[in-house]
Specification:
This protein has about 450 residues and is an alpha+beta fold. The chain contains three helices and 27 strands. The strands form nine sheets. The chain has a five-stranded antiparallel β-sheet. A four-stranded mixed β-sheet has the order 11-18-17-14, with no helix packed on it. A four-stranded mixed β-sheet has the order 20-27-26-23, with no helix packed on it. Strand 8 and strand 9 form a beta hairpin. It is elongated, with a radius of gyration of 29 Å. The protein starts with 17 loop residues before the first strand and ends in an 11-residue tail after the last helix.
Length: about 450
Amino acid sequence: MKRTKVLVILLVMLLNFIVIGGVNAHSVELDPEDLIIFPNNVSNGEGEITIDSTQTGYSLYYQVVAISDSDYTKMTEEEENGRKELARIDEELNKLGAECDNLEVAHDEAYNEWKEKVENEASEEEIEKAKTAYEEAKTKYKNKIDEYNAKADEYNNAIIRIRNNINSLIPTYNDNKWIKTEDGSFNIDSSEFTENKAFAFWAKLICSDGNIYYDLNVYTTSDTDEEEIKVQSVSLDKKEISIKEGSSYTLVATINPTDATNKTVTWSSSNESVATVKDGKVTAVAEGTATITVTTQDGGYKATCKVTVTKKDTPPTTGDEISVKSISLDKTELNITEGSNYTLKATINPADATNKTVTWTSDNESVATVKDGKITAVAEGTATITVTTQDGGYKATCKVTVTKKDSNQKPDDEKTDDTVADGELPQTGSFTYFIIPAIIILGIIMIVTYKKIKYLNN
């Protein structure tokens, strides 16, 4: 899909042209090589089109095609309805995504418990019970992923439908009305576009090799200030949760109204020695209580959740229990690049200790995270990875130094996590003056990222 250009519009003199960005109209493919660049500043009908520096000996043409008032009204109505529909589906996707994350945690815990029963040679009844619990957790997780993927399809199909409906209203160029420009500059008769009028600005590039490229922006003239939709409140899906040490739970924040302009929020914990939070994901550190707070950037509205962290279950002991005496790691220092992974190996002494359960933590998750010994390098800096035995609380550490990734080289051990969706809604950005909200959102619909699909690992 063509990359949309977002333009900065300045108010100069009386007439201002406001960009909503490139869109595909009719059957014309728009500048797949991104050779045509529309001006950042268009004032009093004057501006300049720039052509990529790789092109020489080309010919450049432009023309302006008016959009009828009735079609423009339909476009803004379609955009407004589409924006609300996408906001609703996106909110549902966020909730389903959080539910997937929480069920993944339950799935992993059930699997580890089953594995632990087998390794500790528990009774057949206990092993079968743990296996059944794991299968149930796996089924719930898979079903929720299927639900998420179906909702992602609904979102993507809505984007295509909305885009096509709007594109059908944009007029195409007239081959007999191209105006040639020698240096890319143009001058539009501003008297044709007074008050609140919309028009399509077409560009045609004929390259020296004979290839022809078209590009398009839709503009409108307006003296209406941008209408910002303010946040009125925020809420969380849980007011209280209880989780065990080492576990996590992802809270879902819902902003009212769902189509608020600024949905940025910050997360904080009142007691990070008990529970930490990042982007809504609460991680239980140690026994105790903490309050997780989400705060909106717009209006400073807050919602809280009380988190109670309980001790991790200790496996039953027998008279023949062999206690842990120490633990060590295969590395005490490690250097890796951003985006890379390394799995530390923990060795418990004695090797036949009864309870080999351990927990892994990072003192700086903005630099490196750890799960079951697998370290993921996030950003440049240092972090200390600690493994702690449940029996006796013995510890071992590894200092991790993360260096910047060479942009020209991909680390050999870099792996892609195919269980996580990587699409983002674009930010609305901000314009300084005289912006029609519907038009701006229309631009956003044109560039909104498709939702990706989640996959089940095991």
